[in-house]
Design goal:
heterodimer, A: 541 residues, alpha/beta, Rossmann fold, four-stranded parallel sheet, 17 strands, globular, B: 429 residues, 3 domains, 48% helix
């Protein structure tokens, strides 16, 4: 049993729904109690889909449990097939139905339906949403894909895009276009937009483009084994990754790389002098492993940020994530506990967070700018405009998205120079963001004796210990004057704290952290104004 | 107010359906209950689905650390129930250590915990033995196999009733979780009538809990509190049946039932209600310009449907075509049913695909439905009002009567305003 407040991933059957909803002509008969239908609104509201997800829920109730829930399932199944006339159905159980062990797959198989019935076995109590999607897609391919001749022209399949995916809709368009530039057409894009009939001819493609390993890797592996289709390993997010991806496609297809970079603006946007202020900004990344690894490469090599930490919530990719993080000189955090993520971010005080909607909230509470790079998603992650993450346009979009939360370069300088100005002060936040202008509240000069008291009696707070730390205490800790480092305790003297507050907010976290690290290394117990500036000189670049 | 229609829907045969239900489960009530009860924590004992539901139903995640959470059952908990109990006790102890502000702890049962027969009543007893000096533990089920949407609040409040202290005082107990601003208005109205003392269930804090006994009379502010109604009657309290306080008429009838019980004079009633009644009528009239003469179709959602249909038909000039309810509770719903003009199909339960067929055939000017159905129906050219907003907005009593009407009018006004509305174009073809 594990106490969870917010989750990064839904249950396995929601993963299956993401596959079913992405496809056409497929129906999902889900043995589930009343209430599980909430999942429909993920698609109709968050993604603004204009049709109900193709899911029939048996919605059994307590009074059915002693009676015939199996009969209820068969009735729901029969009626769904009659009403929706799908080309194939997938059948399975949600967490509660798994417990009553009606075996939906077995039941549906005995019903003599004229269409393929694909049973799903998705363990609800040990696995999560991404596994559910990946496994469902695999089962659909296993059951429906037939041996077929390769197309005459060179074609590929796009694998892994689902409903409710982070920018999947636009990534498909972008990659289809880039492949077309090389003379490659898409045979089948699946699950997104595919029918069961399309899945049947998946083997006709010459190779596979694996867009999202989280939801498509098992199917890609199956196709490699069964149809001899090699698949791409590089996720084309970022300029360099996109170029590497094109080289990989060239190797798989035997076609020369042909591409139109005239619409690629990110390298110049990043090189232009206006972007100089981005240099070495400390970023923390968290999300699904694929997006985090791609984003880390962009952050460091294409924008010039310093990656101070990263991690992912999907344990399936823990090994790859850890190895990748090592190259960046950081330890990967593998966790689906947002309190743990928040504590890690609070301890590192980055200047920018690249995360999910969960990190967006963490960032808001900690007062750190944030851009979203990965699921879990929110209605805002389905913009009306074209905004892919992949390919050249994706690189452009990412540059804009990441830079937007930051204070603009020239404004940074002005804030540094005039931070005491009554209108133009750092509590007002970035000028291009919404929100009312905040008047600077002039702090009364502290009386001499107060300063004296402050100096002699530094604020001391007790450390909150325990296996689970609340988000609140995590954020409070960053604000206390006392910092625990190993067995020692560091104390910020009042004057040093006041000096720290004079540093503009967008670099204050970095200065605080550097100073504390410096003090800890020197074995100091108190931080004075001198310590602050010694640390500044020490870390000067 | 329109003249009272001679025949209401009391004797209308009810269409009872069974099939796929497109409703939330009772866990959803935690979203508003945890804000209402400020020293309470709601611990769902369930699956990842439960946690995901709460997160999704909260829509925009309320990202202050919420006073609710899910103890997610894992494989090993299913293997042996003894272990599950140990694990639950451990999680509770950890939670209480972390949140010293918690005075009331609700163990909330879910579909999986009900199916594996995890005994949460026993678990609550264990918690009361171990931590009884600082926290009182309760348990109720918010599971989908037993409760729909708003029944979660009902189950929660019903669980509180047996623990309320006994009293012989002649008191009015008002039952139902209302937004604070609305509750304050209600208390002010009752004070103006000279009715008191007024107790409220649920109280903001455990220490403010009311007593209950043979001299308690109670009124419900929400039409979904059937189990709480029964639990209070078991404690000897007496129910004051009335229409629910939606709109000017509903509020007046609701207050009148209390005024009659407490012997408030007609003059005093008039003096206390005349001004807010006039304000409510005026505010409703503004929205009724959009609603009058239009038809409405209710999918079952919150059990507020009959009361809201009564409001829309009698105070806003609409015609109800179908009024769907998760289920009907005669003692509670009959006052509103009696007033609802005959005509609409009164449906209980749901077979969502059949009901969708009826809704498409009826093609009401406004269809009130859940979030899963709203956009798909809009895409089919129908105008919808998503029902959950009716539960999450202040809609009770005089001062909100206009807001309530406006909630229904807004989607219709919006469609009329947007020149490029896809449905508008379709209608023009």
């Amino acid at each position: 049993m594990k106490l969870t407040l917010w989750t990064y991933e839904g249950p396995t059957h929601v993963g299956a729904m993401r596959v079913a909803t992405a496809m056409k002509g497929l129906h999902y008969v889900l043995h589930a109690p009343q209430g599980d239908t909430y999942a429909d609104l993920l698609f109709t509201m968050i993604e603004r889909r204009s049709a109900r997800p193709p899911v029939t829920y048996t919605t059994f109730q307590a009074r059915d449990l002693g009676a015939d829930t199996a009969g209820l399932f068969k009735k729901a199944c029969r009626e769904a097939v009659e009403r929706f006339q799908p080309q194939a159905i997938i059948v399975g159980a949600s967490c509660t139905a798994e417990l009553i062990q009606d075996d939906p797959g077995g039941l549906a198989a005995t019903m003599g339906l004229s269409i393929p019935v694909i049973p799903l076995d998705l363990p609800s109590y040990s696995r999560k949403e991404n596994f559910g999607a990946d496994e469902t897609f695999l089962q659909i391919v296993r059951h429906l894909a037939r041996p077929v001749a390769r197309t005459d022209a060179i074609t590929c399949n796009l694998l892994g895009a689902t409903a409710l995916g982070f920018r999947h809709r636009d990534d498909i368009t972008e990659m289809t276009r880039m492949l077309a530039d090389m003379g490659i057409t898409v045979n089948v894009c699946a699950p997104f937009g595919a029918t069961p009939a399309d899945i049947a001819r998946i083997g006709a493609a010459h190779f596979n483009v694996l867009l999202y390993p989280e939801t498509g890797e098992s199917a890609a592996r199956y196709c490699e084994k069964t149809f001899g289709q090699k698949y791409t390993r590089i996720t084309p997010i970022g300029v360099e990754a996109t170029r590497d991806f094109l080289a990989e496609v060239s190797a798989l297809s035997g076609l020369a790389v042909k591409t139109d970079e005239t619409r690629l603006r990110q390298p110049w946007w990043s090189a232009s002098v206006d972007s100089t202020y981005l240099t070495g900004k400390r970023v923390y990344l968290f999300g699904d492993a694929t997006h985090v690894m791609a984003a880390a490469r962009i952050a460091r090599d294409e924008i010039g940020f310093e990656v101070v930490g990263m991690g992912c919530y999907n344990r399936e990719f823990a090994r790859a994530m850890r190895a990748f993080a090592k190259d960046y000189g950081v330890e990967a955090l593998i966790s689906d506990d947002y309190l743990e993520v928040e504590a890690a971010i609070a301890a590192l005080s980055p200047e920018l967070i690249l995360g999910t909607q969960m990190e967006r909230h963490i960032a808001k509470r900690l007062g750190i700018p944030c851009a979203v790079i990965s699921s879990p998603v929110h209605v805002q992650d389905f913009p009306a405009r074209y905004s892919p993450q992949m390919g050249y346009e994706g690189a452009n979009v990412i540059f804009d998205t990441w830079v937007h939360p930051l204070v603009m370069g020239l404004e940074e300088h002005l804030l540094t120079m005039f931070r005491e100005d009554f209108e133009f002060h750092d509590d007002a936040g970035a000028s291009h963001h919404g929100g009312k202008h905040v008047e600077r509240v002039a702090a009364p000069e502290p009386a001499a004796e107060d300063i004296q008291t402050d100096k002699n009696v530094p604020e001391v707070a007790t450390e909150v210990a325990g296996p689970v730390m609340t988000a609140q205490t995590a954020s409070e800790q960053t604000a206390t004057a006392q910092v625990a480092t190993g067995s020692d305790v560091l104390v910020w003297l009042a004057e040093a704290e006041r000096e720290l507050k004079k540093i503009p907010f967008f670099v204050r976290g970095k200065a605080k952290r550097n100073t504390e690290r410096f003090a800890a290394e020197k074995g100091l117990r108190e931080i004075s104004v001198d310590t602050l500036y010694e640390a500044k000189a020490h870390y000067a670049r | 107010m329109t003249a009272t229609v001679a025949t209401g829907c009391k004797d209308t045969p009810v269409l009872r359906e069974r099939g796929q239900r497109e409703v939330f489960c009772g866990l959803t009530g935690i979203i508003w209950l945890h804000r209402k009860m400020q020293d309470a924590f709601f611990l769902v004992v369930g699956s990842r689905t439960c946690a995901h539901l709460l997160q999704s139903a909260a829509g925009v995640m309320i990202f202050a650390e919420p006073r609710f959470g899910t103890a997610i059952l894992e494989e090993k908990d299913l293997a042996g129930l003894a272990d599950a109990n140990v694990e639950l006790d451990r999680e509770v102890a950890r939670l209480l250590a972390r949140r010293p502000d918690i005075r009331q702890l609700f163990l909330v049962g879910s579909c999986p915990s009900e199916v594996i027969k995890l005994d949460l009543a026993r678990a609550a007893e264990r918690i009361n033995e171990a931590h009884g000096d600082r926290v009182r533990a309760y348990n109720y089920s918010g599971s989908g196999i037993e409760t729909t949407f708003t029944q979660g609040e009902d189950a929660c409040l019903a669980a509180l009733v047996p623990a309320l202290p006994a009293t012989d005082a002649r008191e009015l107990l008002v039952v139902g979780a209302l937004p604070d601003v609305v509750e304050d208005q209600m208390v002010a109205l009752l004070a103006a009538l000279g009715v008191g003392p007024v107790r409220i269930l649920p109280a903001h804090r455990a220490a403010e809990a009311s007593g209950v006994g043979p001299n308690t009379v109670f009124a419900l502010t929400q039409p979904f509190l059937g189990d709480t109604h029964a639990a209070l009657i078991r404690r000897g309290a007496r129910y004051l049946p009335a229409a629910f306080p939606f709109g000017e008429e509903g509020t007046t009838l609701w207050l009148q039932a209390i005024a009659t019980e407490f012997g408030v004079s007609a003059e005093r009633f008039e003096a206390a209600t005349a001004a807010p009644r006039a304000r409510a009528r005026k505010a409703i009239a503004a929205a009724a310009e959009t609603l009058s003469g239009k038809s409405v179709f209710f999918f079952p959602d919150s059990q507020m449907e009959v009361s809201l249909a009564r409001f829309l038909t009698r105070e806003c000039g609409m015609t109800a075509l179908e009024v769907g309810m998760p289920f009907l509770h005669q003692a509670i719903h009959s006052a509103d049913l009696d007033l609802l003009p005959a005509g609409p199909v009164i449906a209980e339960g749901q077979d969502v695909d059949r009901q969708l067929e009826r809704a498409r055939a009826a093609r009401a000017d406004l269809t009130v439905c859940g979030l899963g159905l709203a956009n798909p129906l809009e895409a089919e050219g129908m105008t919808t009002k998503w029902a959950i907003e009716l539960v999450f907005s202040p809609v009770h009593f005089y001062e909100q009567a206009g807001d309530l009407a406006a909630l229904f009018a807004r989607p219709m006004r919006r469609r009329a305003m947007l020149r490029q509305h896809p449905n508008r174009l379709e209608a023009a073809e």
